[in-house]
Write a structure and sequence with these properties.
By secondary structure, this protein is an alpha+beta fold. It has four helices and seven strands; from the N terminus they run H-E-E-E-E-E-E-H-H-H-E.
């Protein structure tokens, strides 16, 4: 019953947020205490310890009007977490944190962002 109540409360909070924000969810990413944290409507929905990541994959998704770049982190327990361009905090994360945890070529963003309609999926870091 406790899990049901939490799910109901999450649903209600999302509903209220959407009403206040004209149907839009607010997604954000932060890096706190060695954790990559994804929030939806100011609530934590997923998290991964950056020192437990075994690979980082990037790709571009064609959404017709724009093509956001995604980063997918796979941890040692085979759990994945995705963050994407357009999330609050994404630019700050890739500029200030990504290189501190992973040895990634500096031009990874430009190479995945080339060409319209091309996914350009690639592993940019692997343990």
């Amino acid at each position: 019953m406790k899990k049901f109540k939490k799910s109901t409360l999450d649903w209600w909070n999302d509903f209220v947020h959407r009403v206040k924000n004209k149907g839009e969810d607010k997604w954000s990413v932060t890096c706190e205490d060695n954790n990559l944290v994804v929030n939806k409507n100011d609530r934590e929905v997923s998290k991964v310890r950056l020192d437990e990541v075994v690979s980082v994959t990037t790709y571009k998704k064609d959404l017709i009007t724009y093509d956001p770049v995604f980063l997918c982190f796979l941890d040692k327990n085979d759990c994945t977490i995705e963050v994407w361009e357009g999330m609050d905090g994404f630019d700050s994360f890739i500029r200030n944190e990504l290189g501190r945890y992973f040895d990634i070529e500096p031009d990874w963003f430009a190479s995945v962002n080339k060409g319209a309609f091309a996914e350009n999926r690639r592993v940019i870091w692997k343990l």
